[in-house]
Design a protein that fits this description.
Helix content is 26%, strand content 26%. With 151 residues, the chain is an alpha/beta fold. It is globular. The mean pLDDT is 96.
Length: 151
């Protein structure tokens, strides 16, 4: 597993962790932490028609639109990756995947609505942790393509 703390320090990122009970979905994380869904982002791993992984980052108060993601990523089709595929591609378990510091360099598509927040809470590398990051640090570290991908 990747050491998220070391990655964030190495890249001079201002961050804060919040420990919580183990959760798998953003709604559960919101309930467990008391942080509203519009302040949380989901890092979702999809695979395209050739089984290549790609990442969609959307606010937790919305869902990623497969149709919009296909259009933005110029893919014939995309579907949500299995937990195993997501963990193999990112180095983190689903429910704890941060938007940065992945094992492999993956194409990242960031929903424009995320840019409305200065800070967001995201998967903190495990299912028992959230991490607070500046949106500008996320965009600096992953160089995402900005799209309208929320459903």
């Amino acid at each position: 597993m990747i050491n998220l703390t070391a990655f964030l320090r190495q890249n001079k990122v201002d961050f804060e962790f919040l420990e919580k009970k183990s959760t798998h979905h953003a709604s559960e994380a919101s309930n467990a932490s008391g942080i509203s869904l519009d302040k949380i982002v989901k890092t979702l791993v999809f695979v395209d028609q050739d089984s290549r992984p790609l990442i969609a980052i959307v606010r937790a108060d919305s869902n990623a639109s497969r149709h919009k993601l296909e259009s933005c990523s110029r893919s014939k089709s995309v579907k949500i990756a299995s937990d195993e595929t997501a963990e193999k591609a990112t180095g983190y378990p689903t429910g704890g995947i941060p938007p940065v510091g992945h094992k492999k360099k993956l194409p990242v598509y960031l929903d424009r609505a995320v840019l409305q927040n200065e800070y967001v809470w995201c998967g903190g590398g495990t299912r028992t942790r959230l991490v607070k990051l500046k949106v500008e640090d996320i965009t600096r570290l992953v160089g995402p393509e900005m799209c309208d991908i929320s459903a």
